[in-house]
């Protein structure tokens, strides 16, 4: 019963969607969260795979960022699109990742994901601050499971 489907309460899910909405107000970046149970390989590879399946590359400036969690395996990755890679180093998300994993190990899934959204948005705001035209290019809903 401890699958990704009941990892978060309905209220917590809604709060995460709201925090993504808030985060995106200040940046042209686009954030999504994907949660599943297990990840066979390297979480960054899987994050990239999900990123492509969700068509997250379809942003004007290639500023999509996926926050990926395989809950049972406690594997976690943050993957940013080309536009972000061109600005920052590969280990850019490392501190956020370490802090999030420490929270997941204490079963603080909601806290770890909330913190990640806030920290990722700080980075996005500094590199891609919102301008006049800042459409919501990708859904703010959390996606779940291996179907993605
Ligand atoms: Ca969005």
Intertermini distance: 21 Å
Bound molecules: calcium ion
Order of secondary-structure elements: HEHEEHHHE
Q: Architecture in CATH?
A: Roll
**Largest sheet geometry:** 4 strands, mixed
- Percent of residues in beta strands: 5-15%
SSE class: alpha/beta
Count every helix, treating DSSP H or I runs of 4 or more residues as helices: 5
> Briefly, what CATH class?
Alpha Beta
Task: Please state the average pLDDT score.
Answer: 92
Q: What report would you give on this structure?
A:
The protein is an alpha/beta fold. It has a single domain (6-141), classed as Diaminopimelate Epimerase, Chain A, domain 1. Helices cover 42% and strands 15% of the residues. The protein has helices spanning 10-25, 43-53, 82-85, 94-105, 109-127, and strands spanning 30-36, 64-70, 75-80, 143-144. The protein has a four-stranded mixed sheet, with helices on both faces. Strand 1 (30-36), helix 2 and strand 2 (64-70) form a beta-alpha-beta unit. Residues 24, 30, 136, 138, 140 line the site of calcium ion.
How would the blueprint of this fold be written?
Blueprint: H1 10-25, E1 30-36, H2 43-53, E2 64-70, E3 75-80, H3 82-85, H4 94-105, H5 109-127, E4 143-144
Parallel strand pairs: 1-2, 1-4
Antiparallel strand pairs: 2-3
The site of calcium ion (CA) has 5 residues, from loops.
Characteristics of this structure?
148 residues; alpha/beta; Diaminopimelate Epimerase, Chain A, domain 1; four-stranded mixed sheet; 42% helix; 15% strand; globular; binds calcium ion
Brief characterization of the structure:
By secondary structure, this protein is of the alpha/beta class.
């Amino acid at each position: 019963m401890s699958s990704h489907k009941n990892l978060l309460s309905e209220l917590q899910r809604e709060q995460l969607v709201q925090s993504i909405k808030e985060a995106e107000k200040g940046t042209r970046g686009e954030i999504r969260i994907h949660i599943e149970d297990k990840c066979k390989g390297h979480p960054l590879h899987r994050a990239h795979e999900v990123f492509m399946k969700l068509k997250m590359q379809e942003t004007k400036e290639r500023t999509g960022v996926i926050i990926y969690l395989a809950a049972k395996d406690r594997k976690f990755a943050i993957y940013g699109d080309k536009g972000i890679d061109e600005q920052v180093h590969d280990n850019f998300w490392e501190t956020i990742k370490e802090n999030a994993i420490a929270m997941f190990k204490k079963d603080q899934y909601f806290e770890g994901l909330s913190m990640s959204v806030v920290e990722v948005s700080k980075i996005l705001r500094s590199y891609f601050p919102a301008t006049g035209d800042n459409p919501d290019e990708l859904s703010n809903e959390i996606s779940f499971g291996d179907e993605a």
